[in-house]
Amino acid sequence: MICERLGFDHVPYTLATYKNMVVSICPCFITKDTELITAYHMKRFDSVEDYETYIQKLEAEGITDARIKMENMYILDYLIMNEDRHLNNFGIIRDVSTLKWVDVAPTFDNGQSLNIQDYNQDEVIISGHGRLFYEVKPFDEIIKVVKDLKRINIEALKDIPEEFDKLLHKYQHITKMSDARIYRLCVLLQRLINKLKDMIESK
Question: I need a surface site. Which of 103, 133, 140, 153 has the fewest CB within 10 A?
């Protein structure tokens, strides 16, 4: 929902139930003519300097909007506190016949987010760390790779916490998530949106 509202290129995930479990469903973004090459399989990247090298490599291969698409991925990670953006969770799409780099892969695999790794019915973590290539850094540091936050229409997210609340309650009979935790997670999401809004307005 966040990607749709902000116009980010992404793999659309939906939820369903299977054998009394909540499962996520998404289409395959690779075709018979393309393949995913992850950042891990390009070279070893260790720091923010390597992040810039990565962007420059993509641009040199003809992907002119590479920086914007990478920034969008990190904006999403900031908003949902995605802890697991390792080098196999992003990359490029390549033509299997010509080996031409076609595009940045759409943002995918965002599951380790909003405290899923530190599940506790009574508490949520209000700050945390994500990944910038091999570096584990506070989200407030990672978001600094974004050069122009003002391009983001943060008002498009104004009712997202309410939509999140509806989604969590829809599957509550299966997940057994408490009302208190659902409330706290929605407050956390609203807090992150507000923090990003403050950053945008302060620029």
Answer: 153
